[in-house]
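Quick one, T. Sequence first:
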Amino acid sequence: MLVTRCLLLSTLIHCTCDNSTSSSGAVRPPHSMSDSEQPQLPVDQAAQELQKQTNEEPIDTSEPTEPEPPTQNGDVPQNPEANGVAEPEAAPENPEPSADDTPSDPPKPKPAASVNLDPEFPTTLEGFGYEFNKEGVLTEVDTGEGFTFAVRKNHAYNQRRYEALGEVITEYVYAQLESRCGLQRIYLPVDAKETDARSFVFASPDLATNEECLLVLIHGSGVVRAGQWARSIIINRSLHQGSQIPYVERARANGWAVLLLNTNLNMALSTDEDGGSRHMDYIQGSGTPEEHVETVWEQFVSPSKARDIFIVAHSFGGVVTAHMADKRPEEFTARVTRVALTDSVHSLAYQDCSSDVKDYFERNVVNWVSAPLPLDKEIDQKHNRKPDCKLRSAGTTKHEMTSHCAKDSIFSWFSSILEDDGREESSYNRADTS
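Structure tokens:
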């Protein structure tokens, strides 16, 4: 047996030498090792590598994050204030999943279902041990500390917990829109039964009667719902920075009517007529973001008596806005006074919009984009493309923060047209809207 092992060892050594040299005696490059041949990490080092993996950022099922705009040396400035950028305070140390994104071409979001709470987790903020303090910051009830993502070493558990908390946040924002802002929840389709799959929007009580101004708010794609700009910002920073509530309160203080779309709620539970099984169905008239905006326009915007209609749309909301403009160009261009976009991902050329819509965007639309520049600084182009509307810096390099950072500038821009007594009256005949 010993002799056999020695012979095998000798043969193995001989073969190894043959593989490392050619017939001419030149040394060959060593062959690549297979996975099984790769050197193994010590147990403690492997554990450290595993720990690194479990500490990755949480994945928020929403729009992909846009790369930050580079400076001349290719890096995003670590201190934007050095360039005069109105950057908000730094986020907490916790990982912050992106709320949404800015790809170069408009994406087609997948149909989003209504709330589906994970039974493993609580269904209230109190159950999670959190509350919003007076400043609108999400904090632990017992310690006053901010949100903590990694409560366990199991990343999958932390992610599920984060997403379940996100659904609770959505319901909390809905409640705030009703109780704090005095908005009404209006279900769609308007003639649907409670057992049908339904969507809904939020509107001020004077939506149909306000003859002055109507402000329409359209969020981006992903997990966000009516009343939110970025769910991750609400969780990691504050309700004030991540929700649409400041826009609603500002508009109401101005005496404007408001309408909040819910473009991502495309599927919901319905019950069979016999009261039996429940299942997910597409919502009639809201099966896609584009269908939703068409339905809302026909049901609420077109019949409104408002002399001026303003739209604020974030990210994919710009795509939805451009779609609506191209769907009803004559009515849209006559009734919508101005459109403020925040890091919109629309492309009029890609969406094959008409020349009338393109002319309208050039004259009446401003896109406040993420950039390492001072707030309101005019920008010639972004992503090396000629813009189809005016571009201004939102004063932040963070895509999800553009709506919050540009808010004051947007309202000032809207108000400036109202103060222009010499502007022409709209040629649109409101009597024909019925």
